[in-house]
Queue: 3 jobs
Job 1
Amino acid sequence: MDYYSILGVNRNATPEEIKKAYRKLAMQHHPDRGGDHNKFAQINSAYDVLSNSDKKNAYDNPQPKGFNFNSSNFQGGNPFADMFNSHFSQRTPRNRDITLAANIELKDVITGKSLIVQYQLSKGQLETVTVDIPKGARHGDTIRYQGLGDDADRRFPRGDLHIKVRIGKTKNWDIDNNNLITKKSINLFDFVLGCVIIIETLDNRSLELKIPKGTKPGTVFNISGYGVPDINTGRIGNLYVGIEAIVPKINDAVLLNKIEQLKNEINKAQ
C-alpha cells in the first residue's frame, strides 16, 4: 500500500502539506458524509504513518525481504531448508494487534455508528481514537482499523485495531440477513373494517401501512427498501410487519348483546 499515493503527495512533501492533504481527503471520504469506510480507513492509516517521523522513516526505509529456499528438486529434502525459510521468509515485523468489543444497537446497523474508544498500549499510555462502525455491520463481525494497534517498538509499524461488533436486543424487532422483522397489534374490528397504521422505524421514520378490510390475523406485510443495508454492496433489505389481533375486553351487557346480534346477522349473510 503506497501511503503517499493515498494522500496524493510526493515523498518530499512537508509535514504541513501532508496534514493539509489528509484533512481534505478525510472530510471528502468521511462515512458520515457518505464516503467509503475502507477508503477512509486507508487515509487514516496513511496519515498515522506519514505524520510520525519515526514511522515515516521506517516506512521509507523498509527491512529487506527475504527469500524462500526451494528444496523440491532434492530427494529427501534439504537439511538447511528450515533454517533458511525461518530466517529469510519472515514478513517485515510490526507491533501487535489490539482487539476490543463494541456494543451497538440494532438501529446503528441501519445508520452506522461513530464511537470514541480508549485503550491502553503496552507502555502504559492511553490511546483515544474515533472509529466508524459501517452500516450493515453484523453481530460477531470483526472490523479492522489499520495502524491503530500497539506501538511498543517504534522501529516497526503499528499493529491494527480490531473491533468485534456486538448488537444488543431491541424489543419487538428482529433481524434476518438484510431484512428487519417487527409486529404490530390492531383491534379485532380493524381486521374486518380495514385501517391505516403508523410504523415508527428504528431510524426515526414514520411509515403508513394500509390494512385492507378482511385481513386475517397473522398476515405479514412486506415493505421494500426499509430493511438493513448490506455491508459489502449497500443493498437494503425489506421490512416485514406481522399483524396480530387485540381482542377487546367488553364487560358491558348491552354492548355484548349488540355484538351478539351483529355476529348472528353476519353468519346469516355468509
Note: The first strand starts at residue 98 and ends at 104.
Job 2
Amino acid sequence: MKWIYKVAEVELSYKPSIKRKERLKIKSAKDAYQVLMSTFREGTVEHREYFKVLLLNQSNEVLGYQLVAECGISACPVDIRVILQSAILTNASGLIVAHNHPSGNLEVSSQDISITQRIKEAARLLDIALLDHLILTADSYTSFADEGLL
C-alpha cells in the first residue's frame, strides 16, 4: 500500500536590494543608532515600543533589518526564534538588537537585561554574535556594549 501525505512546503527567502559596495558599515553604537533611527517613520519612536534587529555580515556591514515586535507603550514581548530565523536566512554573523522607550527614559530595566542574555545565549549556539543591544529614544541611546552589560 502506498501512502500519500500532503505536507506544506516551507519557502523562505532573502533578497538583498542593496549592492555590496553600498552597504553601511557599523563601526560604533552611534552608527547603529543612526541606521536604526532611519527605520522609524517620523514620530513613531515616542508613540509605542518597537523591537528591531540589525543583521550584519562578518565585516559588520548591514545586510538588513527586521521589525521583530510592535508593542504597546510599556512592554514588548520578543520571540527570539524570529530574530534567529532572520539571522539564518541572511547568513548573518552578527546581530544588534534594539528597542525604543517611548517615555524617553534611557535606563536599562531588569527585563531588558534578561531578554538580552537570552538572545545572546541562543545566538551563541548558532555561532552568531550578539554585538549590542540599544535602547533608543528620539534624542539619544544607551548601548549595552558600551555600558559593559553584554
Note: The longest helix spans residues 110-125.
Job 3
Amino acid sequence: MEVLISIAIFILAILGVTALAQMGYQYYNFVFNQAEILDNIQKSVNTITKEIRKMRQADSGAFGLEKADNNEIIFYSNIDQVTDVERIRYFLDGNCLKRGLIKPTGTPPRYLETDEQINNISCNVTNELNEPIFAYYEDYPSEASLLATPSDPHMVTVIKIYLRISSTGIQPIPVSKTISEYVRPRNVNKEEDN
C-alpha cells in the first residue's frame, strides 16, 4: 500500500512539473514573440523616419512628397550610396505594412510603377479605423494644424507615424503595443511652393 501511495505521489509530482514546464514554455514563447515584433517594428519605424527626414525633390523634378493619405504615403528620398533619388511608398495591405521602392530609369529620369519592388515591413498591424498610420500637419503637431486627408503635399511640414502592433501568440491573451513618431522632413519647406 505504501508503494502504491508513493507511486501515486510521484506521478502527481511529475504531472505537476510537466504542466508547469509547459506553461512556462508557452509564456516564454509569447514574451519572445512580443519582443521580436516590437524590435522589428521599432527598426521599421526608425527606417521610415530616416527616409522621410531625407525626403527631397525627385530626379524627375517632382515635389518631395507625392501622396499624403491615411494609410499610404509616397515620397522621394535618397536611401543608398548612389546619387539617384528613389520613389518610396509605404502602404497598408490588409494587416501588413508594405514598402514599395522604385529607382529612376532613363533620361530624363522616370519612375515606372511596373519597376516597383514591394517588401513586407510588418504583418501584425492592427490599427483601428480611427487610427490612421500616417497623419499630416502644416505646423507644430496640434489639432489646429492637423490636415484632412488626403492632404495637400505642399502644406505638410510634419508627419506622424502611428502603428498598433499585436502579438500572434494565443496563450496568454495577445497584447497590443503602439509605436508613434513625429517626423519633420529636412528638405521640404513651405517656401518651395513659391
Note: DSSP finds one helix and eight strands in the chain.
